């Protein structure tokens, strides 16, 4: 494919690419006849001829192919998938990786394209001049029809300059098509909840952007050390080395920041956010892609962040601080009992807890908060624009030695002059961290409760429990939870992730043991008599339990819950999935006839004070849910009803009971015991069991049927 592209490139063909396919901000700018600031579009906008429809870009074959290659990532939606394929194993992902390694090499120079004829060369497109005045969105501009761009002198004398245009073009196309879906103005408008989202990135899209970020870090870090003499540098630096120097701040930083801001604010609160998280963490750690190898050490200590990265951290301060606050706000709204959510909190805490990183972020904040010097307006605006426009070959801006000025320019260029900066190590964010730490403690307690409940359930589900004739599900409540299915191993992982995350947060924000102890005391670990079930925070009143704001927060986030239970007439419960519907209705009619016929006799028997009365009360009275009332906020009067002694045969409609009886009859047939004899043995055995239970455990608990 690339050979064909280069063959067409040599013949200087031009192809029309519809402007309607471009990202929203660029499309809107061109349609308003305002030239986008990205030099990729200069000299390319073609207005429709008479009778034509729509605007087009006139692209050379290389640009045309790369535009369609890049746009295919965000347009291949709702395609039928017969089986799941990992994005990293897809042909598209591998092609992106190949193109990046070829056109943005970390070693050597860009390979020259193959010539279609011996000795021939492939001409580069008309160079773009840095003298062209580039504009920003939202400012007044002249019409594209009136804009005249003069023919620029050729730079083909330098072979490296002739070939480097492919590297710049490839990167600009990838960044424009994958990241430039939100301008600064659109991003500010998107903060309103009433604005409809125009673009929703997919998980595969984010994974490919992460691949781009990782490669750009490796590409930028492969920059050769600058010579000591400035004059020597100006004569020896190759165009590729210059490109490495400016590739991230000029081409990527602003668009990636807005893209991440949008993802943090609009991505669903589920485990798929892991892709966005890893892309963000990859950008924050350029030292992971540096060519030098860490020193070998026998102790697995975390690698300290070198001071040479202080400038990168300061010039990307918002990437570290504001997005960290955005992650905190997401984490406070997620269920940390889930292992995948706990892993994300652990990953972020581990990255920010790297030695010396928090100190360098704090230093960057201090530089930003220094009193601002009087800066000439024109110079300030010039430096504030991270995308200076034009080719990277343009003259570099004068070196700015004031680190504080660099940090301020970075912040104000991305967020505007009126931006109110929220300090990462300030009181407000520190309180959010304390809330997250409290949430982590509560999630650990919830995970332990689920683990204990699962262990109890497994212990109770023994083989002999199948032979119980009175399943607890009929009168009991559903105490299960979706988290019960995550398994003991996952619960252990959750606990490990949360414990390490809490430790890292304490390191980052210097939380003391006293603060942790006080915070855990505020968790509201009110437990019932068995020390396991935890109620949401509530206040007891004459009308039952009333939730407090903390209790509502605990329920919304899945930290605590009331035990769901049926508190009406047990005979009128909805038919369960483990019951036979026809038998339930038939046995209910039979029980109703018996209860109506023998109601007076049962009342007399249950009112006796002797052993017969105790035996009848054990079997015929309705259970009093006094203990369970405490776990429900319903009005007490609803649970105080009593329907008197009665017969309930509904347990015979349970499939488990029926299977148990069939198994007993089948086993009895092996010992030549007929159905009548087996029935007599069952009734006799049950009667003895009931007598023993009545004699020893009458005060223990009422019978459930």
Automatic annotation (TrEMBL):
Q: Name one GO cellular component term.
A: membrane
Entry keyword annotation includes Transmembrane helix:
yes
List all membrane-crossing ranges: 655-673, 679-697
Keywords tagged on the record = Membrane, Transmembrane, Transmembrane helix
What membrane topology term does the record carry?
Answer: Single-pass membrane protein
| Biological processes per GO annotation | ceramide biosynthetic process; glycerophospholipid catabolic process; sphingomyelin catabolic process
Q: Does the keyword Transmembrane apply?
A: yes
GO molecular-function annotation terms? sphingomyelin phosphodiesterase D activity
Query: Cellular location of this protein?
Result: Membrane
Q: What is this protein called?
A: Sphingomyelin phosphodiesterase 4
